[in-house]
Amino acid sequence: MVGRGWFDVLHTKCSPALIFGLMLAFSSHVPASTETRVAAVRCRNLTHQHCVIHPDGVHDLDCFGSWSQTFEWRCVWKPGEPAAEKTYTLIIQQPKKKWCRLYPNITALSQTIKIFNNYNLSAEVLENSPSTNCSRAVFKGLPANLQRCGPPHSASFRRHAGMLNMTVKWPLGDSKHITNYTVRYKEVGSHLWSKSPVAFHNKRCRLVEHLNSSSVYVVQIQCVPDNKCSQCPWSDAFTVPSELTTPPVIVGFKDNDIAKKNGRRLVTLTWKSSATEIHDSFSVMIAKASGESPELISTSWPEIRLILSYSAYQVNISGVNNASISPAVSQLIPQREGVGDVRLNVTVHSNTSFTIYWRDDLIRTFVCFSVEWWKKGQKVTYMSFYESDRNHKTLHPKGLEPYQRYSITLHTRPNKDTCNMKHINNSESTYSTAHFYSVQGSPVSAPTNISSHNVTLDSVELQWGAIPEEDIRGFLLGYTIHYTEYQQGEASTENNVIVDPELNNYKLENLISSTTYRVQISGFTSAGVGVRSEELLFKTNREDFISNSVITMLAVLTTLLIFGSPILKRAKVLLWPSIPNPRKSNALQKIDRPCELELLGAIDTLKVEERDTESLQLVEKVAATPASTSPSTIPLLHHSGDETDSAGATCNWMQTDTGSMTGDFMSDEFKTLDTQRTVVQSSPLTFSSEYTTIEMFQQAMPQPAPSVLEAEAADVTVVPSRMDYIRQFSSSPTSEGEHLSTVC
Which domain holds residue 125? Predict the structure, then answer.
């Protein structure tokens, strides 16, 4: 019995049923944690017909060879229902062999086996469960066709411009045997895969082209079968999200100071992404303009806050999912100048050497520094260094160009273990910024756009544009204004005025009126005066006497309009006194006019007569008033308390007079006497014209009675013709409809 196993002994003494029962009993007494023991038994003595094939039992038994560190065979299966704690027994049988391999007490869902490669393989797995009946699964195959490679255990995808880039990772033992693989894909929701799988070489990343950028795809991968990999199963489905084609949009940028932290600032960036594209996160790439220590930051929020120095930074923000990265949006964080009153001095030794100096007490706090220098339009150069003893550092650039302006900034870094920047965020502070030239020169161009404004009798305002920085070639110390009187063919003295470099305008004063001037402007540095600008001619205003006279007259007229009215009124009163109108006197106002209509009627009758202005008409003498007539008998001047009597008397007088005159004129023909006049005494009631003066009114007043001699001497009295009196009324230009008035 030497060399024979216990299964052989068992076979010779016991029946097959007893043998299988002992196998199960043996497997049930082996602890689950112990390694599975392999037993070799005669296949004909094994029987397990009581274990049935059932859909709810163990199933999908599969055996194959795979490449790991060494080639090995393995069987895998899936458990039955319910998924309780179970043990499995694996039986491997090859028909050409009399012996079977028995793998009892398996708790996993796979088992490494040993077989003969030249014989067919038959495998059964038995599921032992105390609560259910025994179930089994069967597998048969040829070992030559059971060499399996894959599927890949992972794959990464990148989409760009309608293309899909894949990177596949195979199991460690399979990767060196797989030379090619194929891919099939379809859009999510579609039941049709691509028309034919796409084959790729395993050594390189492969691209699938002509995809719809906005579609989500499902991808499966398998190797291409060969003599090393006879089996190439498809991988599980990989879901590839749509391509991100729209960059984020920056909606907020803030650059704020941090209290009590000079040289640092809080930068806040906020952005938003496309609503139609799915993002898993955002990738933020931030780097100094010098290129030092770029850092990639991943965030799931569309906002980032950074504590930065005063250097210039470049920030790129992209949306990210597991298949693509969107185009980046860029944001430049500009550089800030200097910090407060802190000074940084630079001494240039040559075009390959210069020294920077800082405050002495700075090294008590910081020992790590970084310096950046650059010329406008060129990339920033940087260098970090350690310095704990001195307050200066000599640098050796590759070569400084003459007449070029350089800027330099010194930063301090709090980390003392290394002066190199570990992280962009909150890693350094700006100390100060300065400017320097390796060699200075005079400006090679002049101020531009010179113009004159507000020209007066003795002044003018000049304005000009700054000299381009690249043409100054040094630190501009100021401008020189050169001006002279412009006289053709004659030399004149030039005057110069120095203006501060910050100004671009100046007012020239103390000029001569009505004089033409020539002006030129130039800039100057420590190396000398630069090129002069083109000439500008202007002429000061001349004194305009006409204008002055007009202004004076306007001033006088304005004064007269304001103050002249009261003065003129007073002068009129003094020089031209008012003459009273007799018609408005009290005396004439008391004279009643009851016979006005009768008088007007007589006048209207006379208007139809032909006017005779070439003859003198005489009437008979009217008896003079007797000397003894009392003044009270004159009806016109009779003063009595009875106003009615007076008015009646006056009217009777007028009627009598008018009737007598009318009778004379109407009964007899007027005779013209050229040689004889009848002189009668003038009646005091007769007025020579329609205008009654004070003198005429006094004549109408009662006079003292003349003596007898005087009465006899006055034989006749010349009385003005009543017709003349009436003709004065009739000759008036007053129309018939115009109201006339006279004294009765």
Answer: 59-145
